[in-house]
Give the backbone structure.
Amino acid sequence: MSDSERLASDGVTNADGTKIADGADQRSASSGRLLSWVSTVDHKKIGILYICTAVFFLAIGGLEALLIRVQLLFPNNNFLSPDLFNQMFTMHGTTMVFLVGMPVLVGFQNYFVPLMIGARDVAFPRLNAMSYWLLPFGGILLYFSFMTGKAPDAGWFSYAPLSTKPYNLMPAQDYWIIGLICLGIGSVAASINIFVTVLQCRAPGMSLQRVPLFVWMSLMTAILTILALPALNSALAMLLIDRLLGAAFFEPARGGSAVLWQHYFWVFGHPEVYILILPAFGMISEVIPVFSRKPIYGYAFVAGSSAVIVLLSYGVWAHHMFAVGLGMGADMFFAVGTLLIALPTGLKVFNWTATMWGGSIRLTTAMMFAVAFLLEFVIGGLTGVMFAAVPIDWQLTDTYFVVGHFHYVLIGGTVFGLFSATYYWFPKITGRMLSERLGKWQLWLWVFGLNATFLSQHVLGVMGMPRRVYTYADNPGWMALNAFAGAGAVAMAVGTLVLLLNIWVSLRRGEKAGDNPWEAFTLEWATTSPPPPENFALIPQVASRRPVWDLDHPDAADAGKELTPADSGWRPDKSVTSVWAFVASEAVFFLLLLVAYVVFNTDLVGEITSASLLDVTRTAVFSVALLGSSFTLWKAEAFLKSGKFAQFRFWLALTITLGAVFIGGQAIEYYGLITSDVTISDNLFTATFFTVTGFHGLHVVVGLIALSIVFVLAMKQDRNVLHGSALKAIGIYWHFVDVVWIAVFCIIYLGFMQ
Amino acid sequence: MIELISDKELWNWWSPVWLVAAVVALLYGRYAGWTSLSKTLWLISGLSVLVFAFVSPLGVLADGFLFSAHMIQHLLVLLVVPLCVVLSCPPAAAGTMHSVANEAGSLGQKVRAVITSPFAAWLLGLGAMWFWHVPAFCSAATENYMIGIVRTGTFLAAGVLFWCPVYSPFKQDRLPASSAVVYLFSACLGCTLLGIYITFTTITVCPAFASPQERLAIMVALHDAGMTASVDQQVGGLLMWVPPCSLYVAAIVSVLCRWYAVAEPGELGWSVSQTAEIR
């Protein structure tokens, strides 16, 4: 903890206490309190910030949903104009996914992952703060679009060509893109942090096979995010280039491909579904055992099957695109893949049920939400399996049946998991219990609301009511079903208010919680409620999957009885691990840009092509410089390792020079092309060429800046550089940039794959 | 004019693959011995799949008629047969191989170290897959019998090397679980990319199949049922993509089972008092 923060947290104590002498002190205390939140790098405070920001956007997204329901209350209603209706459903979807769902889950992960693994903080506290602050920044950018006269209105998946310039002239879509890029960068950074934290900061004795399931699910979610978000980012970058620089990646009229947007979006979008549900799986995997007084049934299965979900989730995206016309063969294979991924998901339901079987179940609100999760999530899951059958998908796609399906998954699954976790962990966060009575009101309001709203939508979908249309004709039964759906939405809104009331009452005069009110099993309950800034006075020693149970019941301890793989004690270097995770993410980004290049240049004929424009020999020479810089950096690393600092500095300087030569070569190439009137908007070759090489050049420049910083620090005899892993970490990034260039050179300059 | 061949020749009973299977079985008996039933069953499965891939109609259709049949054959030869062979290999036989390599001197050791390193194994396994789908090589191997044999040989060898880091009979040669998962997942990514490319590209990946010199009678029926050359290639690409990835995921599951099963009774010195300090 930094000095300023220690002061700031003292300020909190003062403000909470009663011994404040005069008004001046009080003012400085309250400004100190604000500063302590704004400048915090404590994972617990950042977690709370994430959760509160998500609740704020939940209110906005919920209001948008209510406006949609009001509009659909009567046939031929004109409460919202068609245009405003489009904006509402677009903003509702985007808000709920990017500004509510992901942040609130990341918030819980931020707060509890370090506590559950017995760590003092996340691996990179400052990066953590940056990840958080990108969230309000992205959210404000997204909502600022209202000030431009119109919010984004192309749907949460912004299908091209509707999202391209000719069909969407207002700047709102640009705000949508830039906002999402901000949020995407924040999410990837947060996930790299969680990934490294779980791998590196675990308490002694806690092997990866012993981590609490919420931690394991957070690790899986982090991997999913790291590898899936860059797909969205590359698509967003291309769409932004289309819109601002006049390229035509996604404009079919100019040779682009609207279907490519769908592919890229869903390569991100399907893993995103699991990014939103896996942490909820983790939450109820904590809650159900605690309130059944049993260890989880089949720990290894729950954990292992989640790993399988992660792997399979990248291979089923096209089931969102059955109606596109990918061809019978593709449809069949994706249908099979979709059925396959239902197995590891569906079978877990049996694990949770078997955990309850024969347990002494305590039906607290947390447990009831977990049970409700099981019931509602199964409904959402089963309608999902229905969509794997291609003809059913053709019939029901773009109807309210789909809307009903995914709301069952996201509310019955994610939201109920979150409510369960809220009731379970609130005492730990605040030191006070939530009211069970109000909790049960909330539960039944939500159970009624969910089923009323979305079961009706299933029926409406089967009747043929299309989604995203602002109104409907007065067909028999439609109004009644829509009115019922509206009543359900109101019930959910009231349920949320009950939760907020519950929190407010509890914070003022809630029952004191104590360290471990639920007699729970995992390490977060071994410290005080709320935990001190350093989390634990002593780093705990772990010998089983339920360390706190072992502590409380030495006679019936798991340790020594239920054998689990022991901890080897090895932890990876955190800088190196984080760079590997970052490189993996960037690899996906470049991969998709290169795929776009291959897609658009395979059949390209005309005057402006790779063969007619590029000077392969000249670029080959500059490429040798770049590849040579990998060799010189390797030499520099070797000299650093053997302690020959003078040679190390020489080879590092040589590396930087070679990198600069390459960038100089690229600048000459760009200058030549631009002065002969070849620009990014000419055709698909120039668009893909400038995009791929431009992003690569940007990465080289970033690498050069990083290497220069290392060089300057090396001149100043910095300990971290000379004896730490800083150079090794940057080296991995630099070699990666070179490997990318080999692929770029082979594909663009030598014409491989065409 | 395309020549039509009757469906009677859908089975290639006189394929030399029998000879290969017999030689492998003899060598296995000589060096590994028919000691363990499960290992023997793996070998029998592997050899049966190998024979099936060339003798059955699959082998005949793969020989220049149907790209998707070629793809199935290719996957059997590159992935399934070598997997069975590696799993059939008892540690004793692997030990003999180790000592043979060691006797061959430092060069032999070096060669062995390079080709059995996981990185090289990954590159060779994926490389064989990608290399033989460059249009020129793919056509050449289909049209020329000898190149076809070379292709099959490289598939088998690359396949065995690929599976070694995961299922080597020597436990110390196996990758640690986390690396094995990355190894298999990245391999899945590699064949996914190739599969996507073959499925969606407008290029004819293997021209030999698109314009055959002769045609089996059954091909006419298949063509009438909608199996045109482009559909054939699309199905081939999907076969390149989904089944191998499913196999890799299954292998990942087995690695995870292994990972969770390592229960070590150690953990001596643990006591409640030690954990009690955290409060």
